[in-house]
Fold:
Amino acid sequence: SIYKATIQESEMNVEENVSQTLDYQPSINIYPNPNIGIFKMELPKNLTANEKILVQILDKNGQKVYEKTVFDNEIININLERKNAGLYVIKIISDGTELIKRVIIN
Structure:
């Protein structure tokens, strides 16, 4: 009985740790969104600290229309005003982690 209580406690701690890890998502702000093709993307300081970050933007067909590698840069100015209106996918790749955001160009 005591042994069972110890196992349950361990399982709870593991679940709590996994839950905390999965709940963490860096806050990446894109503004304005929607826009006319000119916008800013703000990366959190904890994501950019001493890391190389690859930013890719893909159109609705999955074609890469923008790519930039940044180092310790929190705000990225992006100009896609010559691109067609529509929904674009932004991929932020850092240290094996890939985050996905979306932006609408009018």
In short: The chain has two helices and seven strands. The first strand starts at residue 29 and ends at 31.
